[in-house]
Amino acid sequence: MTVKTRFAPSPTGFLHVGGARTALYSRLYAKHTGGEFVLRIEDTDIERSTQEAIDAIIEGMEWLGLDWDEGPYYQTKRFDRYNEVVDQLLAEDKAYKCYAPKELLDEIREEQMAMGVKPRYDANHPRIIEANSNVAEDAPFCIRFRNPKEGSVVFNDYVRGCIEFSNSELDDLIIRRTDGSPTYNFCVVIDDIDMGITQVVRGEDHINNTPRQINIYKALGANTPEFAHCSMILGDDGAKLSKRHGAVSVMQYRDEGYLPQALLNYLVRLGWSHGDQEIFSMEEMIDLFRLESISKSASAFNTDKLLWLNNHYIKTAEPEYVAKYLQWHMNAKEISLDNGPALTEVIKLVGERCNTLVELAEQSRYFYLDFEEFEAGAAKKHLRPVAKEALELAKAKVEAVEEWSTENLHTVIADVCAELELGMGKVGMPLRVAITGQGQSPSVDAVMQLVGKERVIKRIELALDYIAKREAQ
Ligand code: GLU
């Protein structure tokens, strides 16, 4: 049987890291087995679902590169189908109309609690039986699934092993509300059957729903899929991951300068492992991923590790890949790339020093934009009158360079040092501040090469002006 998995978010907010991890695991399993991955938007809760959230989820999936083979399906477009199955269950007496009003159910619940009994819907309660007999033709009703009264539901979860629920714990669940809308536990089953889902990967908060859903599969004579319920993600303080811990939305990680590959690599390890390997390309994840190796214990989010992975991918990924995402940050900072070197060259030179693309964009600025002022501290320290001679000689030598290469620029600096009998720092640092406007940068000859001859000369002149003004004071 072809494997088919799905990611089925409810569009009530952005795509958060927990959802992204579920989507990743589902997709990895599908790809590992040569199967298919479906995206389904569970928007039956019309009050809480928004188009904005749907767009945000799709944007997050696309940014992560978690593409799907089928969908997105929308539950709100499938109401006719759900009603058809409700009618079938009614006709087979596997579901029934329940007329018991809310007030009555509330009263019974209070009674149960007063008696120390677990509050639940009891189809055999005399007052409910009474409410369901001799009803007026136009009385409002919901539809309940006739859950088996005896026996138990047993399933084997990939993560948690064998799980058993006694049917006596489960009540007759509402499958269609009084207003005619179908409920989550029902729609999910019909969808998973119709879409041919073979493995359901989802959060452990759904474990209690699973036995109810399995009973519906059985009532419909359908095959039950296999289940893998993933543990929660905790913040680094051990509490359930929330906004309080900083970024939770996947798109916020984009904004903060993470590469999708770093976040995916981080998420795959958050609750799954393959020995002590930390770095996984997408191909390796697909190759090595097993549902059986998902960890049972909750995982704690660790931002330092994510930063470490991000730095790893900035350094080692194809510069073209990094450029694609860095470009977004350059645009956000309104740094036009029209006037300057290829972004891939800047990444090769500056990338390894940066943990995020936000830092990398900031450190790429001077390759594309001219500046009028130098960083105050660096200028004060390095653009002093004693540096004037070195900068003037460097400028003359730069002007004479014919082949604009890092090697030749290296020679220029070495020659200035030799002629003026100065140490490297006395020449390199003023040049660095002149050309980058700041006190830190990669090797200054390589920086000069990328900044370009005309700009290098102009910037040395700007630095000399600065020194002249300082001398005049
Ligand atoms: N729509 C549910 C949620 O967002 C997921 C349902 C499922 O995966 O079965 O929590």
TrEMBL record:
<dbReference type="InterPro" id="IPR045462">
    <property type="entry name" value="aa-tRNA-synth_I_cd-bd"/>
</dbReference>
<dbReference type="InterPro" id="IPR014729">
    <property type="entry name" value="Rossmann-like_a/b/a_fold"/>
</dbReference>
<keyword id="KW-0030">Aminoacyl-tRNA synthetase</keyword>
<feature type="domain" description="Aminoacyl-tRNA synthetase class I anticodon-binding">
    <location>
        <begin position="323"/>
        <end position="463"/>
    </location>
</feature>
<dbReference type="Pfam" id="PF00749">
    <property type="entry name" value="tRNA-synt_1c"/>
</dbReference>
<keyword id="KW-0648">Protein biosynthesis</keyword>
<feature type="binding site">
    <location>
        <position position="243"/>
    </location>
    <ligand>
        <name>ATP</name>
    </ligand>
</feature>
<dbReference type="GO" id="GO:0004818">
    <property type="term" value="F:glutamate-tRNA ligase activity"/>
</dbReference>
<dbReference type="GO" id="GO:0006424">
    <property type="term" value="P:glutamyl-tRNA aminoacylation"/>
</dbReference>
<dbReference type="InterPro" id="IPR020058">
    <property type="entry name" value="Glu/Gln-tRNA-synth_Ib_cat-dom"/>
</dbReference>
<dbReference type="GO" id="GO:0000049">
    <property type="term" value="F:tRNA binding"/>
</dbReference>
<feature type="domain" description="Glutamyl/glutaminyl-tRNA synthetase class Ib catalytic">
    <location>
        <begin position="3"/>
        <end position="308"/>
    </location>
</feature>
<protein>
    <recommendedName>
        <fullName>Glutamate--tRNA ligase</fullName>
        <ecNumber>6.1.1.17</ecNumber>
    </recommendedName>
</protein>
<comment type="similarity">
    <text>Belongs to the class-I aminoacyl-tRNA synthetase family. Glutamate--tRNA ligase type 1 subfamily.</text>
</comment>
<dbReference type="InterPro" id="IPR049940">
    <property type="entry name" value="GluQ/Sye"/>
</dbReference>
<keyword id="KW-0436">Ligase</keyword>
<dbReference type="InterPro" id="IPR008925">
    <property type="entry name" value="aa_tRNA-synth_I_cd-bd_sf"/>
</dbReference>
<comment type="subunit">
    <text>Monomer.</text>
</comment>
<dbReference type="InterPro" id="IPR004527">
    <property type="entry name" value="Glu-tRNA-ligase_bac/mito"/>
</dbReference>
<comment type="function">
    <text>Catalyzes the attachment of glutamate to tRNA(Glu) in a two-step reaction: glutamate is first activated by ATP to form Glu-AMP and then transferred to the acceptor end of tRNA(Glu).</text>
</comment>
<dbReference type="GO" id="GO:0005829">
    <property type="term" value="C:cytosol"/>
</dbReference>
<feature type="short sequence motif" description="'KMSKS' region">
    <location>
        <begin position="240"/>
        <end position="244"/>
    </location>
</feature>
<dbReference type="InterPro" id="IPR001412">
    <property type="entry name" value="aa-tRNA-synth_I_CS"/>
</dbReference>
<dbReference type="InterPro" id="IPR000924">
    <property type="entry name" value="Glu/Gln-tRNA-synth"/>
</dbReference>
<dbReference type="Pfam" id="PF19269">
    <property type="entry name" value="Anticodon_2"/>
</dbReference>
<feature type="short sequence motif" description="'HIGH' region">
    <location>
        <begin position="9"/>
        <end position="19"/>
    </location>
</feature>
<keyword id="KW-0547">Nucleotide-binding</keyword>
<dbReference type="InterPro" id="IPR020751">
    <property type="entry name" value="aa-tRNA-synth_I_codon-bd_sub2"/>
</dbReference>
<dbReference type="GO" id="GO:0008270">
    <property type="term" value="F:zinc ion binding"/>
</dbReference>
<dbReference type="InterPro" id="IPR033910">
    <property type="entry name" value="GluRS_core"/>
</dbReference>
<dbReference type="GO" id="GO:0005524">
    <property type="term" value="F:ATP binding"/>
</dbReference>
<keyword id="KW-0963">Cytoplasm</keyword>
<keyword id="KW-0067">ATP-binding</keyword>
